[in-house]
Amino acid sequence: MLVTAGHRSAAAGSLVRPSAGDTFRSSAPRQLLSAVLASGLGPVAMPYGLTLRKGPDAPDSIADYLAGVLGHPVLLSLTVGSARANRKPILNVHSPSGAEIGFAKVGLNALTNQLVDRESEVLGQLANATAGAFTLPHAIHAGSWQGNSVLLMSALRPGKPRRGGIPHEAAAAIIKSSPVSHVAIAGSPWLAQLEAQLAPLRKQSGNELPYLVDRYRQDFGDVEIPFGAWHGDFGPWNLAHTAAVPMIWDWERYAHPVPAGADVVHYTAHQKLRLRGDYIAAREILEGASYSAVVKTLSDSSLLEDPDPQQIRAIVVGYLLTIATRFTLDGLSPTGAPVRALAAWHHRLIFDQLHRNSLPGSRKK
């Protein structure tokens, strides 16, 4: 992390980013460092830092840009995350007094600019559409700096984060934030879009995902399921439970239509499925916790009355196809190397699930 040296409370606050996915082991060092900075001992404990000086002919910095937007100087802090195709600067923005303004996402290339623009659009679209089910940031400013997209949004800071399970009501509200349709998979706009996205890959040797989609259509094409919206990265790392409703951030992957329930599959399975090669763990989570989570979300919200096991399997495998398509297409970008192995692993997972679906008795739960 890079934290501002301009104000101790701003530096301390930038180290505390609430996440329901935090454990004591992962959050304790940040909390301790935050306390050191808040006490004023930061310069003693950490005597080294970076000083940036702007030359007379240098272009405006992102700090200059945000200061122009807000009408006063800003203090910036930055967390540097792991290498990913969608990695981009996410700046914690404070005023000179130390008051938190929010977070600014800044695009760096075609993919990240597209994602920043998408989140700006979604925050405006959902601002008043889901009141009572969850809280999301509000957009303060959307614009462009040096040809790249910028989104400044409010910070979500729960007074006292709580532990909680899958937020089924919030997941259902997200599904219903766009029109919900019940159609057979073969005739769904979702499958048509997936096939269009993957069509160029049919000409590439070694990429089996388009053919897995063909097999999925063969196995599940006549199964009717509900389609709606999804957050796209719905997990404990992107939300905080509160006494009222969950706070949910990072809306850059929001999309529709997708199989209803895909978000809760992601919530329960994504972290486990990142353990490449562990088929036993993958099967246990997809056919256990993920299966049950979809049933509960859709049943409790009356999106699917008395769901048939084949409908739930279609949704679970449909999630895998959706996320594998994302990983595969992101992996084609110049910065996509880190996600290519994950894409290939998801291709094998889909093949495994489709094979298990064809086994005798697989239509029973």
Tell me about this structure:
- This protein is α+β, with helices and mostly antiparallel strands and 365 residues long.
- It has helices at 8-14, 24-38, 42-45, 62-70, 110-126, 168-175, 189-198, 209-220, 262-273, 279-300, 309-330, 337-357; strands spanning 75-78, 90-94, 100-106, 139-145, 148-153, 181-184, 224-230, 239-240, 247-248, 255-259.
- Strand 8 (239-240) and strand 9 form a beta hairpin.
- Helix 10 (279-300) packs across helix 11.
- The chain is globular, with a radius of gyration of 22 Å.
- The mean pLDDT is 90.
- Helix content is 44%, strand content 13%.
- The protein contains twelve helices and ten strands.
- A five-stranded antiparallel sheet has the order 1-2-3-5-4, sandwiched between helices. The chain has a three-stranded antiparallel sheet with strand order 6-7-10.
Which terms would index this structure?
single chain, 365 residues, alpha+beta, five-stranded antiparallel β-sheet, 12 helices, globular
In short:
The chain is built from twelve helices and ten strands. The chain is an alpha+beta fold and 365 residues long. Strand 8 (239-240) and strand 9 form a beta hairpin.
Rg value: 22 Å
Q: How would you state the average pLDDT, rounded? A: 90
Biggest sheet, spatial arrangement of strands: 1-2-3-5-4
Count the DSSP helices.
12
Number of strands: 10
Largest sheet: 5 strands, antiparallel
User: What is the straight-line distance between the termini?
Assistant: 47 Å
Give the helix level as a range of percent.
Answer: 40-55%
- Give the helices and strands as they follow along the chain: HHHHEEEHEEHEHHEEEEHHHH
Poorly predicted regions are none
Strand content: 5-15%
SS content category: alpha+beta
| Overall body shape | globular
